[in-house]
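4.2 Preliminary Data

To establish feasibility before requesting continued support, the project team ran the inverse folding procedure on a target of 570 residues. The structure was first converted into the token representation described in Section 3, and no sequence information of any kind was made available to the design step. The complete token record follows.
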């Protein structure tokens, strides 16, 4: 072997360990997973049809608020599980010029409602009365909300916006496998409440096409006559008559007096992020603010994503925030809420002083801070960004799956069971284990407390993220973790949405992990510190629909695979 050949051979030998290590690196460092990328505008929602119709409206010259009307009504057609005319919701917006605001179209208690309406003669809660049947429904706010927002900021005629939705209802949508399972699961109770011949009392299988002609006709009247059709017109009369026949208490006066309300959103900083979220009667903005501000002093990134230390710190912040939420929060038109005090840095620092990294803090040792609530998993959220730079985070619901199960066959939609979101009796858990307090007691015309947390996030003064999710009491913690996933752990929008989640809500005193998301090592560490673990109690925690504005100005949609969410854009 000559000198030149020897040198080459020696160099090759010396390079082998490096080459072996290099070969392993690409397999360990996975290529980042990204969602749909769009140049101009995007909608991410629970159904592909709704996302595409929202985008179609923007391509026709509409903006985010026009797309909101279209998307919300398309969800009412294709996603009756939570999409609705008979429910309500919240929307947080940021205009292209940086102006921010929010609209509250949460349902309200009817005028005939009263504090103890769900209690028996012994003062005990009557099971099911606030969750099933006509007496469970609050006055719907959805139509008022979308018309209020669109009339203030939209560009198109509502007739033009609603026409593709009307066509969708007439021509039908295809039932998915998930949807067929849900419809079959509630079929018996829908028939029990409404009679055997009710529209959703029929058997629907995956692949079937559902044409909702009654809903198409209702939407057509609303398109022609505006919001007053729902609150004062033929639709209102049919709704009231139907509810009265079933024992409900919503009147024409209740509908005619309903108004959506513009509210100042909750705004707070987390490091160099500016978070804009929903104010009461949503508990979301205050509670997510408390959680993020309590964990801000900790070096979460160095702890590692979903490590034992990370789970413990976040759990203790969640525990304290939910204790405050359940005690202090309610409808701001009825109760005084100390928002500034609850988000005060010194107050939150004091709340975390009892945190011990060596062991769990018992919820029995945590009360509200010295300066309870209710909601189901079956909500839906959608995120919108238009080509002008306007952004909307919108969360809407019937409360439980298919609401009160009352279906208005003449009108084509389900009614909500939002009255269960009030405290039927202080200190008594509702059907979802959440405990209510005086601030959220029932009163005529009052809006029930909510967990819905539509949220916008700015970074370096620019819009960075639009995020929200269904999930009842888990909404707040799912949104907080999605933000932290992207910010602290540099995840893409899709990765941040897909990452495993956990939840703690003060009471019951347990950490809820998603099914098959808890490894044995983490379980061992947490249980050694006296944490109570309830893995897989619900298979999923939330179903996030989010949008991230990338450094080059493009949009990445995060559509959660936990459900059949889908992004659309152009």
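Position-by-position output of the design step:
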């Amino acid at each position: 072997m000559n000198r030149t050949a020897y040198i080459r051979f020696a160099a090759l030998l010396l390079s082998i360990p490096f080459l072996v290590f290099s070969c392993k690196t690409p397999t360990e460092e996975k290529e980042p997973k990204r969602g749909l990328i769009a140049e101009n505008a995007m909608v991410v929602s629970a159904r592909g049809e709704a996302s595409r119709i929202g985008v179609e409206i923007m391509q026709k010259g509409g903006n985010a608020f026009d797309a909101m009307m279209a998307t919300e009504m398309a969800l009412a057609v294709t996603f009756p599980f939570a999409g609705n005319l008979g429910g309500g919701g919240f929307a947080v917006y940021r205009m292209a010029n940086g102006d921010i605001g929010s609209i509250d179209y949460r349902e309200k208690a009817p005028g005939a409602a009263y504090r103890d309406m769900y209690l028996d003669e012994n003062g005990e809660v009557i099971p099911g009365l606030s969750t099933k049947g006509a007496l469970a429904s609050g006055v719907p706010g959805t139509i008022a909300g979308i018309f209020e927002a669109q009339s203030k900021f939209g560009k198109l005629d509502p007739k033009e916006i609603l026409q593709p939705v009307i066509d969708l209802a007439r021509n039908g949508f295809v039932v998915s496998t998930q949807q067929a399972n849900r419809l079959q699961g509630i079929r018996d109770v829908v028939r029990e409440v409404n009679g055997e011949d009710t529209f959703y009392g029929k058997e629907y299988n995956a692949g079937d096409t559902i044409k909702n002609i009654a809903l198409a006709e209702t939407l057509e009247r609303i398109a022609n006559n505006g919001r007053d059709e729902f609150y004062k017109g033929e639709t209102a009369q049919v709704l009231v008559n139907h509810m009265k026949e079933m024992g409900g208490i919503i009147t024409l006066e209740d509908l005619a007096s309903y108004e959506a309300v513009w509210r100042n959103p909750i705004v707070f900083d987390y490091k160099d992020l500016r978070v804009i979220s929903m104010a009461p009667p949503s508990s979301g903005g205050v509670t997510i603010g408390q959680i993020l501000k309590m964990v801000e002093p900790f070096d979460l990134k160095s702890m590692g994503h979903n490590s034992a230390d990370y789970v413990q710190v976040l759990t203790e912040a969640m525990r304290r925030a939910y204790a405050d939420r359940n005690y202090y929060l309610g409808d701001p038109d009825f109760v005084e809420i100390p928002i500034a005090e609850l988000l005060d840095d010194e107050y939150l620092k004091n709340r975390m002083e009892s945190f011990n990294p060596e062991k769990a803090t018992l919820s029995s040792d945590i009360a509200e801070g010295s300066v309870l609530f209710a909601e189901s998993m079956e909500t839906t959220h959608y995120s919108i960004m238009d080509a002008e730079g306007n952004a909307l985070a919108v969360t809407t619901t019937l409360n439980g799956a298919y609401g009160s199960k009352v279906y208005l066959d003449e009108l084509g939609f389900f009614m909500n069971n939002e009255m269960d979101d009030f405290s039927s009796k202080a200190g008594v858990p509702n059907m979802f284990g959440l405990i209510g307090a005086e601030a959220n007691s029932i009163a005529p015309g009052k809006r029930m407390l909510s967990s819905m947390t539509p949220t916008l996030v700015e970074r370096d003064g620019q819009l960075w993220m639009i995020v929200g999710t269904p999930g009842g009491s888990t909404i707040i913690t799912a949104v907080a973790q999605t933000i932290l996933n992207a910010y602290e752990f540099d995840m893409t929008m899709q990765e941040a949405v897909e990452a495993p989640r956990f939840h703690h809500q003060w009471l019951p005193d347990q950490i809820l992990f998603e099914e098959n998301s808890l490894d044995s090592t983490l379980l061992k560490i947490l249980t050694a510190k006296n944490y109570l673990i309830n893995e897989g109690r619900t298979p999923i925690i939330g179903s996030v629909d989010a949008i991230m504005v990338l450094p080059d100005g493009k949009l990445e949609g995060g559509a959660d695979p936990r459900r059949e969410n889908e992004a659309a854009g152009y």
